[in-house]
């Protein structure tokens, strides 16, 4: 009886500690995957811009994306990495902040930039924002970020190979 009570107390305190930490568990079998990474955008004119990107590596993370966020900190966004190049399409379901989206090639070159607007509260229609060609990655930043930083189609987001390989999980 005493062991059962102690075990229950231990497991409850462990559960509460995890709840307060707010961290998600890594994907099964994925080891300790990073949740963010520092990236550089390099323009064709040689300008370099540093940003911090949350990583959306699993199907669940990609589906959730930036839903239910009220803001993004300066120079922060989310990098969606897919296991293989395909025709991607993003939407703004449950997104509270307008976003700019860059579709990226396998090498990190910007293929297309689109602005995605917030849909009115209670909306049941969420337009999709399809890529014009196959890509393996997408980078979401705050509305107008790419333009404000002078980043255009053809510029490069430098993504280390070890980060690109994480999409296998």
Report on the structure:
This protein has helices at 2-21, 59-64, 145-148, 161-164, and strands at 36-42, 48-56, 76-86, 89-91, 99-104, 110-116, 128-130, 135-142, 156-158. With 169 residues, it is an alpha+beta fold. The protein has a single domain (33-168), classed as Sandwich (Jelly Rolls). A 7-stranded mixed sheet has the order 6-5-8-3-2-1-9. Strands 4-7 form a two-stranded antiparallel ribbon. The longest helix has 20 residues, at 2-21.
Supply the CATH class: Mainly Beta
Can you give the helix content as a percent range? 10-25%
The share of residues in extended strands comes to 25-35%
CATH architectural grouping? Sandwich
Most strands sheet: 7 strands, mixed
Q: Strand pairing plus helix content: what structural class?
A: alpha+beta
Give me the CATH superfamily: Protein of unknown function DUF192
Number of helices: 4
Q: How many distinct folded domains?
A: 1
CATH fold-level topology: Jelly Rolls
C-alpha geometry: globular
Brief description of this entry?
This protein has 169 residues and is α+β, with helices and mostly antiparallel strands. The protein has a single domain, classed as Sandwich (Jelly Rolls).
């Amino acid at each position: 009886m005493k062991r059962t009570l102690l075990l229950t107390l231990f497991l409850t305190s462990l559960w509460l500690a995890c709840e307060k930490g707010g961290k998600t568990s890594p994907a099964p079998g994925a080891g300790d995957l990073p949740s963010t990474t520092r990236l550089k955008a390099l323009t064709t004119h040689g300008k370099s811009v540093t940003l911090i990107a949350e990583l959306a590596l699993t199907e669940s993370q990609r589906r959730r994306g930036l839903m239910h966020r009220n803001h993004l900190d300066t120079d922060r966004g989310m990098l969606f990495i897919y296991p293989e190049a395909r025709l991607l399409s993003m939407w703004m379901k449950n997104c509270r902040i307008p976003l700019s989206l860059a579709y990226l090639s396998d090498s990190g070159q910007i293929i297309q930039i689109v602005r995605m607007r917030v849909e009115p509260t209670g909306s049941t229609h969420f337009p999709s924002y399809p890529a014009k060609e196959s890509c393996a990655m997408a980078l979401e930043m705050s509305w107008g970020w790419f333009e404000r930083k002078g980043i255009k189609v053809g510029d490069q987001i430098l993504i280390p190979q070890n980060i690109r390989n994480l999409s296998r999980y």
